[in-house]
Amino acid sequence: MEELTEEPAELVERVAALDIAKASLVCCVRVPHESRPGARRQEVRTYDTVTPALLELRDWLVCQGVTRVVMEATSAYWKPPFCLLEDDIECWVVNARDVKNVPGRPKTDKLDAVWLCKLAERGMLRPSFIPARPQRQLRDLTRYRRTLTQERTREKQRAEKLLEDAQVKLSSVISDIFGVSGRDMLAALIAGQRDPHALADLARKRMRAKTGVLRQALTGHFTEHHAFLLAMMLDRVDALTAQIDTLTTRIGKAIAPHAAQVAQLDEIPGIGITTAQEILAEIGTDMSRFPTPGHLVSWAKFAPKARQSAGRSKAAATGKGNPWLGGTIGEAATGAARTSTFLASRYKRVVKRRGKKRALVAVGNSILTICWHLLSDPGAHFTDLGPDWHDRLAPQRRKRQLIAELERLSGKKVTLNDAA
């Protein structure tokens, strides 16, 4: 069977590879030999990772006429060389899984750089998706906001556990103890108020209907020790909230040129403004780098890996992808599963057979597919197929399902007759 492959027809003529550590890096350059046609000249040098040394490395690579620099994605150590070289030379960051040396051979920094350079010149590597600098900066902002949000949640959980230790069962009565009424009660506790009746009277609006239950929940042994710790925790929560608000303002300014794309994604069930901003920060707005929706889903690791042997396909995991995008899409899928939409219907169909985790992956797959289509067409808008889409698509199958369920529940044979 004849097929078209994407393998390069010739070697990369002038290529370099970097084996990067925290304090130093080893650079291997392979270029054509000046006096021996068809031969290759190889040179290996070691540089520190401070800025003056990296500038010297850049000048040397430019003098050698290097057209591509390949480096392994090692922690965050690849970022300084990448940022200093990307404006002058094409830079590739490659997955460490793809550049492992042959087992049994010696392993040194020099040999690793040479091996990486040889793989690069033969076109045997694939570059990782490294967006342009503006998108990388937007990523930094959205990721830091998510980190602070998670830290604020942990601090709130610590406060709730502290109240449990003091036998104050406020969270059993109030769904959000950090709302207006809850914060008033916590502030009064810190200020020294211990009377359950006085504390319960701080409830506002609909919360006042629970005054009797609140008095019982606020009866405990809250001491000065608890007040000291709770005050520190609430200060921490307020400080994190202020930082999150500052980041949100900054993100809004940075993503303002893509307000139309944010509005497009906001139409999808389970996705709000914050989630849309995080998705755009991770995948960008240019979908030309993903030829099909399947490429985007596969890159995000929301599709199982291909695993076939002896002509039979076997079950396989999705693999490890971008954890920031995975968390965002997972939250969106969880939210969409609680709606009355096509995505919720898809979740319910899969969860019965495959479980909750696989059902969320399936819904995440659908969300990413929708995102790809919306971002590929600036004029497109989301249209929900409806929760009964599968029933309308195959009414006879749905009829058989209902008959089988009725027979199982009644223990009798069900026969349908035409209506008179």
Sequence-ordered SSE layout with sheet pairings:
Blueprint: E1 15-20, E2 24-32, E3 40-48, H1 51-63, E4 68-72, H2 79-85, E5 90-94, H3 109-121, H4 133-165, H5 180-191, H6 196-200, H7 211-217, H8 224-254, H9 259-266, H10 273-283, H11 293-299, E6 308-309, E7 312-313, H12 323-336, H13 342-354, H14 356-376, H15 389-393, H16 395-410
What can you tell me about this protein's structure?
By secondary structure, the chain is α/β, with parallel strands linked by helices. The chain is 51% helix and 9% strand. It contains 16 helices and seven strands. It has helices at 51-63, 79-85, 109-121, 133-165, 180-191, 196-200, 211-217, 224-254, 259-266, 273-283, 293-299, 323-336, 342-354, 356-376, 389-393, 395-410, and strands at 15-20, 24-32, 40-48, 68-72, 90-94, 308-309, 312-313. The protein has a five-stranded mixed β-sheet with strand order 3-2-1-4-5, sandwiched between helices. Helix 4 (133-165) packs antiparallel against helix 8 (224-254) and helix 12 (323-336) crosses helix 14. The termini are far apart. The model has no long low-confidence stretch (mean pLDDT 90).
